[in-house]
Structure formats: C-alpha cells, structure tokens
Amino acid sequence: MSFTEFLSIFVEPITIIVLAIWGGKQGYKYWLKQKKEEGLYLQRQSKYEAKLAAGKALWALLRYISESDHDENIFRRGELNESGKKVFYFRQEQANHFITELNDVFYIKGHGLFLDQTTKTLIFELRSQVFGWLHVSKKSGEEDMKITNAKKFERINQIRDELHKKLKEQILVEASINETV
C-alpha cells in the first residue's frame, strides 16, 4: 500500500470531520449572535411597553383638563358673560383628585421615568398651574371659583393641547421603532 493510497483512504473522513467541526463552530457563533439579539429585542420590547403604559397613564390624567364637561373636569363651564363668552369655574375637589392621581402615576407607579423631558416639563407646568389655582381657591374659600385670569386659563388649554400632541407622537414613534426591530 502506497502513501497515496493510504492518504486517499483518510482524506475523505478527515475532510468530513474538519467540515463538521467548522460547521459546528459557525452554528454556535450564529446561535450566540441570535441569543444576544434576542436579549436586546426583549429589552427594547420591555422599554416600549413601559413607555406605552406611561403614555396611557398620563393620557388618562388628561380627563381632568379635557374640553368636555364631566364630573372629573377641573374646569367647569358656566353661563355666558356680558360679552357672550363662556365663563369657567375652577373646582377644588377635582383639582385635589388630579394632584393625588398625578403623584400616584408619576412617582408611585414610576411612569415618570419613561416620559421624555418635554412631556415632563409640560406636566410640571400643568401641576404648578393647578397648584396656583388651588391656592387662590382655598384662600377665597370658594369650592367652585370663577376664573377671571383668561391668560392663565388659556395656558392650561395650550398645555393640554401640547400634551395630547406629544403623547400621540411619543406612542406612535415608539410603536414604529418597535415594529422595525
């Protein structure tokens, strides 16, 4: 038996073994890559779900400053004034409920962690505005206080509109990012 015959007998099995080892290594590398990507995907998914929950929780708070009349609204529509414009009243009880629920949503439930800075700034400004109205209302002793400062009331409406827009944007942007992953 010559060397070439001997080599031809062992080359084929050795080639198969080498290719099997190489294929196994490549498969293992691919598996590790998939596991890493799966972990990143799960992290992004968790973050998306937390941001979505934060947006929904904050959206629910906007009922306190909505344009429609209902029992939870801080600002009640009243009669028309001399110039034919609606008169609005600030309601202490609903304001207190709003402040309590805002603290619960923002701090206790931790949704404030997942809101962007612009949204947080708007929420803090809204809270400050409501605190100011609440302070004046308590000083006056009126449960339903007539609103006389139109600029401040208009600012509340602007904040509401900006929050509506911002929350919709945040949820839609996060949803589109999450779909591409």
Can you tell me about this structure?
- By secondary structure, this protein is mainly alpha-helical.
- Helix content is 72%, strand content 8%.
- It contains 4 helices and 3 strands.
- It has helices at 3-61, 92-108, 117-140, 150-180; strands spanning 75-80, 86-91, 144-146.
- Strands 1-2-3 form a 3-stranded antiparallel sheet.
- Helix 1 (3-61) runs antiparallel to helix 2 (92-108), helix 1 packs antiparallel against helix 4 (150-180) and helix 2 (92-108) packs antiparallel against helix 3 (117-140).
- The longest helix has 59 residues, at 3-61.
- The two termini are 61 Å apart.
- The relative contact order is 0.12.
- The mean pLDDT is 87.
Major beta-sheet overview? 3 strands, antiparallel
Q: What is the averaged pLDDT score? A: 87
Written as H for each helix and E for each strand, in order along the chain, the element string is HEEHHEH
- The rounded Rg comes to 31 Å
Extract low-pLDDT stretches: none
Find the structural class using helix and strand composition: mainly alpha
Q: What general outline do the C-alpha atoms trace? A: rod-shaped
Total number of helical segments?
Answer: 4
Q: How far apart are the first and last residues' alpha carbons, in Å?
A: 61 Å
The strand count comes to 3
